[in-house]
Specification:
75 residues, mainly alpha
Amino acid sequence: EKVMEIVTSWMEKGIEQGIEQGKKSLVIRQLKRRLGEIPVHLETEIRSLPLEAVERLGEALLDFQSLEDLVSWLS
């Protein structure tokens, strides 16, 4: 029974991490579509953001016109 709890907990954490990585990947793809290529250091910075910030970025990017808007948002 204890083993099953551990396995279930491990699976839930894995699912949560997968969802988080998926959301970050989606926002990065949307940014690339809107702004063109994004420097690797900015992509790395986005991937290191907490999920709540990535979700806010996902909304903010709709107003971005240039890479400078992204840089400004991240600073």
